[in-house]
Amino acid sequence: MIKKIFALMIKEFIAILTNRKSRMVLVIPPIAQLIVFGYAASFDLNNVPYAVYNEDPGQASRELLARFEGSRAFKLVRTLDSDGDIAPVINLKEALIVLHIGPKFSENIRRNQPAELQVILDGRNSNTALIALNYVHSIVMDFNQAWSARHEGHVPPARLVVRSWFNRTLNSHWFIITGIVALLTLVVTIEITAMSVAKEREGGTFDQLLVTPMTPLEILIGKSLPGFIIGTLEATFIMFMIVAWFHIPLRGSILAMYVGLSAFLLSAIGIGLMISAMSVTQQQGLMGAFLFLVPSVILSGFATPIENMPEAVQAITYLNPLRYFLIIVRSIFMEGASFSLLWPQYWPMALIGILSLATAGIMFRRRMY
Question: Is 0.70 surpassed by the pTM of this model?
Fold first, then answer.
């Protein structure tokens, strides 16, 4: 069985590497998109979930927080009771920012002394954090002007102390480039697997494959392994470029990254083989891959935050393996996430992979017989 699968896998590699169009798909798009996204892409912000840790019961703190609560740009999600509550809120992405007001905030303002408002940002999405920080600046400036006008103060009463977690410089390229690992790996893997069976039919070699002593399972495995190997090499190359060329630190476990990559590739290969089993020509395979990739990228959170989507659309994103792998890649690169934190992202991809591969196997078996 292993020899037959290995022989089919070698045949697939030869077919891919000897075809000029296939070689171009493997090399040119990943490099071009890595350069374009790495230097040119940026995002906008629509919604800002925030949490509050207020140690001051005074009037000034209440008035300042009322401005945040009355702003349409902010949404209060948590009220914290201690310093220990701050880290979980940021780590679990419940809030993009945490406003921390010290116990002497109102007292310092009454004495016409600067009072500090600490703003803790989730720097994993640096562009979003920067825009949110601008919103905070605007609200604090309005508060300062209104307070000074009423109390004839000459010193700005509130002063921001900003601290960004995971991405101290708030470099937006960190958020964008790390997502390229998932995006380009999906594109290459889907395109290769979506054309594999359709290429056999169009080339007239599908009948020859049917008369071989190989079972449908062996053929399915032989068709899957080239996509898995090429996808792994593509992801490894992109991760190497991210670290070596763009100088983005890989803070987490490489093993955790490749476990997630394996589950992601299984799901992508299963979906690609389903498309290929339904296609008669390579053109149909490419069209099917395109029809899957476009909504997959849109619903992944790569360009638009999932939290900003309608609830019905958010439910659909749970069927998208790209959603989960984007979280894994960015969490490992920027926050050094562990297996325990990433487990909720691993098992949905594995489940999607098992179901899609099983469906592809059934469809392929029906085509054979």
Answer: no
CB 198 within 8 A of CB 279: yes
What are the φ/ψ torsions at residue 304 (nearest 5 degrees)?
-120, 125
pLDDT in tens, the chain (369 residues): 676 666 666 766 666 666 665 556 555 666 655 555 554 444 445 568 899 999 888 888 888 888 888 877 788 898 898 888 888 888 888 888 899 998 888 888 887 777 888 888 887 766 677 778 888 888 888 888 777 777 665 555 555 555 666 666 555 667 778 888 888 888 888 888 887 777 766 666 666 666 666 676 777 777 788 888 888 988 898 899 888 887 888 888 899 999 999 999 999 999 988 888 787 777 777 778 888 888 888 888 777 777 777 788 888 889 999 999 998 998 898 778 878 888 889 999 999 999 998 888 787 766 655
Say if strands 115-122 and 97-101 run parallel, antiparallel, or are unpaired.
Answer: antiparallel
Distance, CA of 260 to CA of 79 (rounded, Å)? 34
Q: Could you name the CATH architecture of 48-165? A: 3-Layer(aba) Sandwich (3.40)
Strands of the 97-101 sheet, one edge to the other: 74-79, 48-54, 97-101, 115-122, 158-165
CB 65 within 8 A of CB 56: no
- Which amino acid, residue 6? F
Residue spans per domain, the chain: 2-40+172-368, 48-165
C-beta separation of 331 from 186 below 8 A:
no
Secondary element (H or E) of residue 48: strand 48-54
